[in-house]
Design a protein that fits this description.
It contains 12 helices and 17 strands. By secondary structure, the protein is of the alpha/beta class. The protein has 2 domains: 3-15 and 273-393, Lyase, Ornithine Decarboxylase, Chain A, domain 1, CATH 2.40.37; 83-266, Alpha-Beta Barrel (TIM Barrel), CATH 3.20.20. The site of ligand LLP has 21 residues, from strand 10, helix 9 and helix 10.
Length: 398
């Protein structure tokens, strides 16, 4: 990919997110192709991954539901055209106004994470003379192979209700007049690439369903959460995640009861690869031993490398153009190692360390790839920096 070939000449000022809605469309089609014939499967897009209105509108128009974790996300989902009956609402700390908003909007169900929360929902629903549809987020105590900050399903975690308390909490809900028990919710973590993790989740759900059978408890809905990962190392090779293996795992391993609906909450796998962060090189600074490429994007624009040590491929579009024009005799040997860093006043503001790039100059345009998920939504204004610009288009960068 080269800067010469960048199709749009009217790009906004860097740093900016570039969203390719043609890749998003192909990704949504791939999900639909893998779920066709499973009329009981319902995919809810996890809004937290990317809440740009144009992106939400496209996903809603394709017929997906929404997974929200705040009142703000419920409002954004409805403004984009998601139907309330396709919206689910999770989160350990739902504020009263958010519960009220969810009940007044008539969303599909609230995923409840504690008995304390259940009591508040019952009170609010009763005061509104309605019944809240609730499902319980059960902590499956299944470890997932991913970064510690994004595993959620192990026993020592703030999320969900312990599986030992599952029956008693359902019984409690059954005795309440303001709530209706709709099912169970799980989520084991994010950026999971091993199907073994999802198999372990299915196995745990199967065990729990046997306990529920013994109690004659009917569970209309099973929500298995999100978590399918993307290929950050080779986004060009794998622009669309392995939805086939993912949905097959649940089709083969999850033992369902007649009429049971299965809900999925996919975030990163839907939008991760359709977004890049574009940034210009401000300076190439020679340290005593290293060379630093200082760019105009920082962790305020994309915090994943600083927060999780996450890998994002960096492409020097201008440098690749110079190579394509034959400016260097032997391209490979011309590549040099740089630390690619941002301007924020924190030493963690690093995108890549000892990273091979073509010889890089002030003014070069760099693409930080696989930034469509948890990029723009996690941006901040630290250092009084403006939020990154966004450019939405229907074709790839080059
Ligand atoms: N459902 C629940 C209950 C969740 O907590 C999450 C993500 C999802 C669904 C969507 O997961 P996904 O399909 O995107 O893996 N900021 C981190 C990721 C945090 C994920 C939080 N929960 C990152 O940049 O890697």
């Amino acid at each position: 990919m080269c800067a010469d070939k960048v199709k749009d000449k009217n790009l906004p000022q860097t740093p900016f997110y570039y969203y390719d809605t043609s890749l998003l469309a192909r990704t949504l089609e791939a999900i639909q192709a893998e779920t066709v014939g499973h009329d009981n499967y319902h995919v809810h897009y996890a809004i937290k991954a990317n809440a740009h209105p144009a992106i939400l509108r496209q996903i809603a128009a394709a017929g997906f539901g929404a997974d929200c974790v705040s009142g703000g996300e419920i409002k954004a989902a409805m403004a984009a055209g998601f139907k309330p009956e396709d919206i689910v609402f999770a989160g350990v700390g739902k504020a009263d106004w958010e519960i009220r908003l969810a009940l007044e909007a008539g969303i599909a169900m609230l995923n409840v994470e504690s008995i304390e929360e259940l009591e508040v929902i019952n009170e609010i629903a009763t005061s509104l003379q309605t019944r809240a549809r609730v499902s319980f987020r059960i902590n499956p105590d299944v470890g997932a192979h991913t970064h510690a900050h994004i595993t959620t399903g192990s026993a020592e975690n703030k999320f969900g209700i312990s599986k030992e308390d599952m029956i008693s909490v359902i019984r409690k809900a059954e005795a309440m007049t303001g709530v209706e028990f709709m099912g169970l919710h799980f989520h084991i973590g994010s950026q999971l690439l091993l199907m073994d993790d999802f198999e372990a989740l299915c196995q745990r759900i199967n065990e729990l369903q046997q306990q529920l059978d013994a109690e004659a408890i009917t569970v209309p809905n099973i929500n298995v959460g999100g978590g399918l990962g993307i290929d950050y190392h080779q986004p060009a090779v794998h622009p669309i995640p392995d939805f086939k293996s993912y949905f097959q795992t649940f089709a083969q391993r999850l033992n369902l009861r007649p009429g049971q609906r299965v809900h999925f909450e996919l975030g990163r796998s839907v939008v991760g690869q359709m977004g890049s962060l574009l940034t210009h090189v401000l300076y190439v600074k020679k340290g005593t031993e290293k060379k630093f490429v200082i760019v105009d994007a920082g962790f305020t624009d994309l915090i994943r490398p600083a927060l999780y040590g996450a890998y994002h491929e960096v492409v020097n579009l201008s440098g690749e153009s110079r190579i394509a024009r034959g400016e260097f005799s032997d391209c490979e040997s011309e590549r040099e190692r740089y630390d690619v860093v941002g301007p924020i006043c924190e030493s963690s503001d690093i995108f890549q360390k000892d990273y091979l790039l073509p010889p890089t100059r002030r003014g070069d345009l760099l693409e930080i790839r696989s930034a469509g998920a948890y990029g723009e939504t996690m941006a901040s204004c630290y250092n009084c920096r403006p939020l990154p610009n966004v450019y939405v288009t229907d074709h790839p960068l080059s």
